[in-house]
Design brief:
This protein is an alpha/beta fold. The chain folds into two domains: 2-100 and 210-430, Adenylosuccinate Synthetase, subunit A, domain 3 (Adenylosuccinate Synthetase, Chain A, domain 3, Alpha-Beta Complex); 103-207, Adenylosuccinate Synthetase, subunit A, domain 2 (Orthogonal Bundle). It has twelve helices and 20 strands. The protein has helices at residues 15-22, 75-87, 107-122, 140-148, 161-183, 190-204, 211-220, 253-259, 292-300, 319-329, 368-373, 399-412, and strands spanning 2-7, 28-31, 40-44, 47-51, 64-67, 72-73, 96-99, 103-104, 208-209, 225-228, 268-274, 277-279, 313-315, 317-318, 333-337, 347-356, 359-360, 375-382, 415-420, 428-430. The strands form five sheets. A ten-stranded mixed β-sheet has the order 9-7-5-2-10-1-11-15-19-20, with helices on both faces. Strands 14, 16, 17 and 18 form a four-stranded mixed β-sheet that branches. A two-stranded antiparallel sheet has the order 3-4. Helix 3 (107-122) packs parallel to helix 5 and helix 5 (161-183) packs across helix 6 (190-204). The longest helix has 23 residues, at 161-183. The model has no long low-confidence stretch (mean pLDDT 96). Bound molecules: guanosine-5'-diphosphate (GDP), 6-O-phosphoryl inosine monophosphate and magnesium ion (MG).
């Protein structure tokens, strides 16, 4: 059985919590795209863990974790994360498998990410329109650029020291030209970087394997596999709010290419949806609230980035873009998170459509400037005004909360099968 878990909005929907929860009944959890730009938070018995690269099944001793070919791996971040887990007494020995086809994030990717963002924001004018994407600065864009332009450095390249150094020298020669001509930055030393990366090779060597074959064998033998998406559909480079997106395909199709799995292997697609909307970084966000309600959502929901600590932009649930996300991903069921954050609101709004120049839109505008101009159409539902804490059965939810869920199901076209009411693994309602 292969189940895919995908972020249905702009990331930070609570994928980490849901993947950790479902890992209780899984054998393998695999990441298929993105890199250390992700920040997945798990809370177990009050103890908090934040994972960036390692799949969110790692806290379950019997679960094996795969980092697939579609992920871009920063060895510095990876080693830090392995150390963090070891410090918590979590052994990853024999449980972590890294694709030899995965690309590496090099120090120059992070440098170029920062340089591009700085140059872009310098062009900002007095209007609200931002030029910078507001990336996480983890080198994601430049690493995927190298992958697409076929100059990327992969894990498998580490096996041959000479070939690795040659490739690095060529790449760094190009980067140095860019740094000198465009960004006026210091030059990089290829030999120093090559030495540093060859040390990582020794450290990560035990984990490297042909993960495609590993997954195929596992599926053949009936193992239960979870595929963990990072980011979210609206940040997808093809389907999101381009150019304010990440550089990979978080949507469900990305799992096939990012792991070497045929699409037919995936039987179930669960979308993780926050009960309201958030976005971190720049770009269109039709339901964003710049008022006290937005501030309340941020405060109550502790909406600050798990990777960069930036305050997240907050707004009402955008069920119009959610419907699009459901279609693009093939979502059949929803894990609805952070319902508790809405406990104190008298009224809750849901965006059911967009108007542009007074005209109702049939589909999500593809152009970011147009999307900036749309006006959300809202429907208001009653709040439940009581704490959802400790509720374990769907039937025990207040009627108003059930009505809100039912409306989300109608508008999105997918059934809500999980409701989450706190960051903790235990506070979750599984609907029969
Ligand atoms: P991810 O990137 O999708 O894994 O999500 P993040 O970990 O970046 O952000 C989700 C945040 O919400 C984390 O701090 C979680 O601990 C927290 N969280 C998850 N589910 C719930 C919930 O149902 N209620 C509340 N209050 N917090 C939650
Ligand atoms: P998880 O997996 C929310 C956003 C950044 C920026 C854009 C591009 O925790 O949900 P990048 O560094 O990828 O080039 O940045 O994407 N972004 C995320 N937003 N959650 C994430 O991951 C994100 N990863 C990237 O803020 O707007
Ligand atoms: Mg996150």
């Amino acid at each position: 059985m292969v189940t895919l878990i995908v972020g249905a909005q702009w990331g930070d929907e609570g994928k980490g919590k849901i993947v950790d929860l479902l890992s209780q009944e899984a054998d393998i959890v695999a990441r298929y795209q993105g890199g250390a730009n992700a920040g997945h938070t798990l809370v177990i018995d009050g103890k908090k863990y934040v994972l960036h690269l390692i799949p969110s099944g790692i806290l379950h001793p019997n679960v094996q974790c795969v980092i697939g070919n579609g992920v871009v791996i920063d060895p510095v971040a990876l080693m830090d994360e392995i150390k963090m887990l070891e410090d918590y007494g979590i052994s990853i020995d024999g449980r972590l498998f890294i694709s030899h086809r995965a690309h590496l994030i090099m120090p120059y990717h992070k440098l170029l990410d920062a340089a591009r963002e700085k140059a872009a924001s310098a062009k900002d004018d007095s209007t609200n329109r931002k030029n910078a994407i507001g990336t996480t600065g983890r080198g994601i864009g430049p690493a995927y650029i190298d992958k697409a332009s076929r100059t990327g450095v992969r894990i498998v390249d580490l096996l041959d020291r000479k070939r690795f150094s040659d490739k690095l020298r060529t790449n760094i020669g190009e980067v140095n030209k860019l740094l000198a001509k465009i960004y006026d930055y210091e030059q990089l030393d290829a030999e120093k970087i090559a030495d540093e990366y060859c040390q990582f090779d020794t450290q990560i060597d035990p984990y490297i394997t042909d993960t495609t074959l590993f997954l195929h064998d596992a599926i053949q033998s009936g193992k239960r596999v979870l595929l963990e998406g990072a980011q979210g559909a609206m940040l997808d480079v093809d389907h999101g709010t381009y150019p304010f997106v990440t550089s990979s395909n978080p949507t469900s199709g990305g799992a096939a290419t990012g792991l070497g799995l045929p699409p037919t292997a995936i039987q179930r697609v669960m979308g993780v949806v926050k009960a309201y909307s958030t976005r971190v970084g720049n770009g269109p966000f039709p339901t964003e609230l710049h008022d006290e309600t937005g501030e309340n959502l941020r405060k109550i929901g502790h909406e600050f980035g798990a990777t960069t600590g930036r305050p997240r932009r907050c707004g009402w649930l955008d069920a119009f873009s959610l419907r699009y996300s459901v279609i693009v991903n093939g979502i059949t069921e929803i894990a609805l998170t952070k319902m508790d954050v809405l406990d104190s609101f008298d009224e809750i709004k849901i965006c059911t459509g967009y108007n542009l120049d007074g005209k109702a839109q049939k589909s999500l505008p593809a152009d970011a400037d147009t999307l900036e101009r749309v006006e959300p159409v809202y429907e208001t539902v009653k709040g439940w005004k009581t704490s959802l804490e400790g509720i374990r059965k769907y039937e025990d939810l207040p009627e108003a909360a059930k009505a809100y869920i039912a409306r989300i199901e109608q508008l999105s076209g997918a059934r809500v099968s999980i409701v989450s009411t706190s960051p903790d693994r235990a506070d979750t309602i599984i609907r029969g």
